[in-house]
Amino acid sequence: WPAEMIQAILVFNNHGKPRLVRFYQRFPEEIQQQIVRETFHLVLKRDDNICNFLEGGSLIGGADYKLIYRHYATLYFVFCVDSSESELGILDLIQVFVETLDKCFENVCELDLIFHMDKVHYILQEVVMGGMVLETNMNEIVAQIEAQNRLEKSEGGLSAAPARAVSAVKNMNLPEIPRNINIGDLNIKVPNLSQFV
């Protein structure tokens, strides 16, 4: 696989609301939003019975890139790839990603992408990292995710992490923080930090 063959992975709903946006090339935030909008409009105006790939939008590099997509229920999964990439290979990759999501969430739906964003990103990282394909075998990906889930459960889960972090900070023996700092004519009042821990 060539370096950075995948430029971006965009998932948006039928109304163009982004549900997963992952760029593997640096773009300012504003340009990223424009690329999502442009990609949505390019994909939306296509008929369901025509092929699932087209030239990239002007913002992401035009003819040098291809948009390869699949439409499932309320979601479009769009991979923006180097024009030398195999369309069928990427369509298969999208299928693997969606089937993996489906297996991990038991019938994935748009709400899963909204409420379990961290898990969705983790799954995506098992498939693609840095714009390169890591794994295309769904069973391998699912095994990795299940192993991660077991690890989280044995550690008390991710939800317990913030509480553990707070209690660790409380138990640290920090030197007393001065309440007032005088620098020449300036008098700075230091807030009482104990209220935050």
TrEMBL record:
Gene3D superfamilies: 3.30.450.60. InterPro entries: AP_complex_ssu, AP_mu_sigma_su, APS3, Clathrin_sm-chain_CS, Longin-like_dom_sf. It is a peripheral membrane protein. It holds the Pfam family Clat_adaptor_s. It comes from the Eukaryota. GO terms for biological process: Golgi to vacuole transport; intracellular protein transport. The keyword Ribosomal protein does not apply. CDD domains: AP3_sigma (cd14834). SUPFAM superfamilies: SNARE-like (SSF64356). Its main location: membrane. Residues 5-151 form the AP complex mu/sigma subunit domain. It is found in: Cytoplasmic vesicle membrane; Golgi apparatus. Keywords: Cytoplasmic vesicle, Golgi apparatus, Membrane, Protein transport, Transport. Belongs to the adaptor complexes small subunit family. Part of the AP-3 complex, an adaptor-related complex which is not clathrin-associated. The complex is associated with the Golgi region as well as more peripheral structures. It facilitates the budding of vesicles from the Golgi membrane and may be directly involved in trafficking to lysosomes. In concert with the BLOC-1 complex, AP-3 is required to target cargos into vesicles assembled at cell bodies for delivery into neurites and nerve terminals. This is AP-3 complex subunit sigma-2.
